[in-house]
Amino acid sequence: MNKLKVGVLLKDYKKHEGGAYSYYNALIEGIESYKFDDDLEFVFIVIGNSIDSSAPKNSYLFDQEKLVKEKHTLFHLLNRIVKTKVINYLPISTKIQTSYKKKSWACIREQLIEKEIDMVYSLTPFYSDLDYPTVITHWDIGHKSTFTLPETIYNGEYESRKEYYEKILPKAFAICCESEAGKKELCHYENVNPQRIHVIPMFPGTIVDLKLSKEEETSILDKFEISEKGFFIYPAQFWPHKNHFNLLMSFKSFNDKYPGVKLILSGSDKGNLNYIKSLVAELNLQDNVLFPGFISDEELYTFYRNSISLVMPSLMGPTNMPPIEAHALGCRIVCSDFPGHRESVGDDAIYIDPLDRKAIFTAMEKCYLEKDTHIPGSTAHATVEDALIEINKTFLSLSAIRKTFPLKTGAFKVFMALCVSLIICI
After folding, report:
1. Degrees, nearest 5: CA angle 173-415-61
2. DSSP designation for 169
3. pLDDT digits over 376-392, tens only?
4. pTM, rounded to two decimals
5. Where are the alpha helices (DSSP H) in 241-356?
6. Separation CA 400–CA 413 (nearest Å)
7. Contact (CB, 8 A) for 312 and 323
8. DSSP of 329-388, one letter per residue?
C-alpha cells in the first residue's frame, strides 16, 4: 500500500529511428532497467491499438477506441458518423466529438484504477484532461517567450496553447522541466508555484554512444559529396522559429568570402521548407546548401564529428538537443544565447543573437579559421543516469503527497455505499 505505482504514458508508442527520438528511447529504456527505490514501481501505459514489439516488457495496452466501443457502443457509432465530411461541419458534430473524448479518457481512468496506478507520468507535454494525478513534462512557453510566429500563434495554435496553460497545466500533479532555465521561465510567465516544478536534466540521446570507423564515416561523407571540415551542420525541422532565413543570409556573406564551403540543413518539413528552398535559389546557393531531409543517427553522428561546427540560431528555447549532442561529440557550437544553452554546454560554445546576421557570420568565420584545431568530446553534461536519479528523487517526494488520498476506486466505493444507504433509508 505504501508503494507508489507510476504509469509512464506512451501514446501510440513506436521505437522510432533517428535522433529526434533517441533521447526518449534512452529515457524509456533507462526507466525500464533502473533500480528505483523500493517504495516506487514504474510500469508503462501504451495508449493506442497495438504495442510495438520493442515496447518495455511491463507495459499495459489501453485501446481507447476499443474501450469506448465496448462501453458506449451507440455513442461510438454516432461519433464515427459525425466525422464524415458532410456532417463534420455541423455544430452538433463538435459537441459529440468533445463528449467522445471525455468518455474515452473516462475509460482510461477506469483502466488506471483497475491496474492500481497511483500516478501517470508523461515524458512529453500532455494536452488532454485526464482528470487523474498526472506528472507532465514541460518543454517551452514559446507563445509568450518569443516572437509572434505561425507555429505558436496562427491557425488556433495560440488559443490551444492558452487553454493548455490555463486549464491543463495548472491541474498537473507536478511539472517536469528540462533545465533550471525552463523552470524559471515557466514561473515567470505563468506564476506557477516553484515547489510543483522539478528539473529532470536533458541529456544527449543514444547517438553519442555510436562507434563508427573512419571508413564508415568517409562512406557517409562521400554519399553526400562533402568533405571533412568542409561544411556546417544545422539539424532542425523546418519551423519558422528555427530561423533558417537569417542563417542563410549570413551564410551568403560567408560563402562570398569562402566559396566551396557547404551548409547542411537536415530535418523534416513543418511548412517552411519550400520558402527556405526558394530563398536558397534566390541567393544562388543551390550548390552549397544541402537538404537531405530525414537522416539516420549514423549520418548525424558523422556530420557532428566532421563538420566545421553546429550552427543553431533558433528563436525558441530555453533548451535544445543539438548543442548537447555536438558538445559530447567534439563538434564546435554556435548557438543562440539562451540561459538553457549556457546551462547545458557552459563556456564551450559561441553564443550569438540569432537575429544578428553579422554575429552569425563572425561566429561561423571564427569556427572556419580554427577548423583544424582538435576539439575533444566533452563529458561535462547530464547523463541518463543523472536524469533517472532525479526521477527517483522526484517521485519519492511526490509519493508523500499522493498517498494523502486513495485511488478513485476507493472514493467511488464510499460514494456507492452512501447511495445504497440512502436508498435503504428511503
Report:
1. 50
2. G
3. 888 888 999 999 999 99
4. 0.87
5. 244-257, 273-282, 297-306, 321-328, 339-345
6. 23
7. yes
8. TT--EEEE--HHHHHHHTTSSEEE-TT-HHHHHHHHHHHHHTTTS-------S--HHHHH
